[in-house]
Amino acid sequence: MLHSNFSGFTLEVGTDEAGRGCLAGPVVAAAVILPADFSHPFLNDSKQLSEKKRHELRPIIEENAIAFGVSFVMQDEVDELNVLQASITGMHRAIDALKITPEFIIVDGNKFRKYQQIPHQTIVKGDSKFQSIAAASVLAKTYRDAYMEKIHQEFPAYFWSKNKGYPTVDHRNAIREFGATMHHRKTFTLLPEQLKLEL
């Protein structure tokens, strides 16, 4: 059973991101403030949910949230910042996008930079403990998946509609055969043999 609140503040925002471990595409972050009485039988960490359930949940979260924000940190910026900083920057921007200022921030994971003067708490596996973080994980994942499906149309050989940019065998084989695209993260090890290249 997910908890509805950590801090006791009414305007507590949960934030999470998707796409940190991908070779291609953006890191997408979301921030969600849910009403105290919100509950949904299958709201959980987005990784535990089927794609169908995530798609069903997204409009329910958006209609019921007091406020929500989503932000994209594109691959070039991920390369520039590093993936951890890109994730935190994305979460900050998602909070920036809220139409009201939260009183407290709960963050999935164990790393965060202070956001303005608002107190925060990092929570390891927060997306399987708190509803607002779980809701943020669902939004981050569904927005990112939709983006990857869109760029898949341009570059079907990489199977992004299926692998969403994660390092699957199909994805690595396509990189081996066709090289990297503008959507790939240049600082990531795209192929295991990169480690062995004579530079």
From TrEMBL:
A divalent metal cation binds at residues 16-17, 108. Signal peptide: none annotated. Its main location: cytoplasm. Its cofactor is Mn(2+); Mg(2+). Manganese or magnesium. Binds 1 divalent metal ion per monomer in the absence of substrate. May bind a second metal ion after substrate binding. It is an enzyme of class 3 (hydrolase). GO terms for cellular component: cytoplasm; ribonuclease H2 complex. It is found in: Cytoplasm. Residues 10-199 form the RNase H type-2 domain. Pfam families: RNase_HII. GO terms for biological process: DNA replication, removal of RNA primer; mismatch repair. One of its GO terms (molecular function) is RNA-DNA hybrid ribonuclease activity. Its EC number is 3.1.26.4. InterPro entries: RNase_HII, RNase_HII/HIII, RNase_HII/HIII_dom, RNaseH-like_sf, RNaseH_sf. PANTHER family: RIBONUCLEASE H2 SUBUNIT A, RIBONUCLEASE HII. HAMAP family: RNase_HII_B. Belongs to the RNase HII family. This is Ribonuclease HII. It comes from Polaribacter gangjinensis.
